[in-house]
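User: I'll paste a sequence; please echo it back and then give the predicted structure.

Assistant: Echoing your sequence first, then the prediction.
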Amino acid sequence: MERAIALWRAQHEPCTAQTLSFLKTLQNSYSVYGDMLLLPSTAYATETAHGHRESLGIQPEGLDKLYATIAKHMKITHIATTRPIPLSSQDGQFTRDNVLRSPSGFQPLYGDFGPSACADPPTLEDFNAAYWVTAKQNGIYQTWAPRWTMFSRGNVSEKARLLTLPSVLSAVADDKVRGCAAVDLYAGIGYFTFSYVKAGVSKVLCWDLNPWSTEGLMRGAKANKWKAKRVDDASMAGVAKWCEDDDVRALVFNDDNTRAGVVVEAMRSSLPPIRHVNCGLLPTSKGSWETAVQVLDDGYDGWLHVHENFAVAEIAEKAEEVREEIEQLVAERMLSRYGQESVERRSVKVDHVNRLKSYAPGVMHCVLDIYIPKYAPS
């Protein structure tokens, strides 16, 4: 990057103070994923590249030449900038929750990122026309279409933690014949799904509403040489054979995770015991807690991995509130299935609080490992 900027500057002297500040920001803060380079959105005054060229003190052709020079010397083919995923999106006069986590702040700067519009839902032709990037973290490939799907850069340490987490490894080792299963209720492109698979979990059931995310998960699984199957209503009748196929490591549902409980109950006899459930953040995981409790196998120790944002000063207090709410959900499940005497036999506890990353000033994105002991009837 330093060499590319130096070469560009040699051909574009003198530079204004605004230009020098812009170049310094580019040089000191960028990320490379596969053949795509992301420049920091903080370098730009406004949302789009074309709207702020004058404020950078660079003519359009000069900025295009800068990106081409960077691409050549960084040995990449695509350059873009992006902003944090918005919590809501505008649809005409209406504001809607951005439940698909669409990267509406993504701005291509250099290279062909594919069409800017697609069918709803996207077709195979849409998928094939899009630009896909593949990156490797913790020895695991992940694939996504940056125009259509978010990529969470800050979760890399949590992905690594799952690979060696004692509760995951012990669950894998407990039954050497059947192994164990996990459920990822916010699978995305396979952020945590792939960590479970690499750690040795036999089957991971994955839910995500965004078809671009589930397509990325399927492509990522292929890049890692793991067999995955996409499940829809038409293929549910034959899903038992995939559950029993040791080569199939991931079952992928492009569906609302509120249906996961019903689906798992229908498949449970064909699955290894479900010991771990991932509850993501949109912007809270609370809506998935009841489903998470429902899909765990009652006869085995289990864990929920709950993602939440907490004020730093309130982490311990909020973690206890989450524990209490989940314990209440467990009690309700036990009462409905096994009767009053079973309720007090599953005491939920917080195994660990992982302070993953800063979400905002004074706010921390945390992952709570919630332990739910097995139910052993007398």
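The first strand starts at residue 31 and ends at 33. Confidence is low (pLDDT under 50) at residues 46-54.
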